[in-house]
Amino acid sequence: MVDSTPISPATLITRISHVVPDALHITELYFQVPLDHANPQGRQLRLFGRLVRKDDRPIIPLTPDEIEARDKKPYLVYLEGGPGFGIPEPQNLSFTRYALSKGYQLLLLDYRGTGVSSPVDARIVSLNQDTPQGQADYLSFFRADNIVKDLEAVRQTLLPSPSSTWSIFGQSFGGFVCLTYLSFYPSSLREVFITGGLAPIKRTALEVYTALFKKVIERNEAYYNKYPEDIVRVKTITKHLIDNDPPRKLPGGGTFTLERFLSFGIGFGQHGGLDSVHTLILRLFTELTNQKDFTVATLQAAEKQIPLDANPIYAFLHEPIYCNGPGQSADFAAFRAGQALPQYTWLNKEQQKSFITSSDEPIYFTGEMIFPSYYESFYNLRYVTKAAEILAKKNDWPELYDIEQLQKNEVPVYAVSYVDDIYVDFVFARETARTVKGIKVYETNQMYHNALRAKTDEVIQKLFKMRDEELD
Question: Is the dihedral of CA 55, 59, 61, 67 positive or negative?
Fold first, then answer.
């Protein structure tokens, strides 16, 4: 059974409004919620959000009734991808103007632990929690089950009427949050939009990464077919990295290891991703061959490929987002799945050097995977290494989804699903779509995972066409 903890309204701390370019009226909101909603008097978190409306300035001043009608526009809550990332400012979010043009007021709420919402920092967590177990216990409260409880608490504050509902829009991990919300509090939702986020609700972490590696391998092949000259370049760089002892220091304090370099494949699943990775490989190879070392500028670009120091939740809770209830542990599933594949023999430390130096095959990049070695090569993650190990072994996670509830769902759900997604497996996404009663899905092999940002017009058009048109 899904956790049925009663949720109390969030406490609204402050509410300050500003007008910014693009005629956006932004109200900055701070709320207070408990870390553990089952213990409302315990430790508190502060959530930050932005409420966005068009800054209409009519020639004739609005009447009180017109002002009231303006302020009662339906809410659309945007749920960011991740886990572990805050939401960009509304003027920098391509989705904003589309949401407003559809007649919504848009709520951008940073998840707990991200952005400005009591952000989690690995070093600070290690200082505030005395033991690794205490750190792990604290960090375990930052998954989607508690994110949804926060959202529900905020909804009750902004929409105090018991019958009031709002709409939610989830991109990537935000879609996972949508499905959790549909499981926990469906009566609070008017409609749900999901892009690239039909979570594998019936699959274990190991099943997920076993499937994702297959798609990552396909994207590696596409990369080397497009840039065959990079086969030698990548080999040259990898040989340099494994010969470096100690490893090359990065500007942010971490180390430029083989695993960090080959994590660049995380970009292969995005529009323009192959080209971006190629540009960075070109820079690294050119500097290495011409001057025997890398510039600070290029090393900083390398660090940005997977920013775990700044977004640590993405590291230690990435695999637990696939643990749907007691009896499931993540246990570094991506590492275990990769070790079983011949293309990723280099994941085995004892075979790493011989594989890199002797193999004639291209060296394959990884995708959206977190490996144990990251807790050594990322500077800030070193503070929570033992806590991360505890989280990886944890097997008493609360449930994230109620399959029975989703099977009898009555909330309108509209989703876009990407055939060549390397982050959310398409086969498992289709399995989830078959589970959610009444869902409408647009499936395409003409867009990648970041299409909401890269091809906003097309994605929004497809979603609202499904909502507004009837099928015979």
Answer: negative
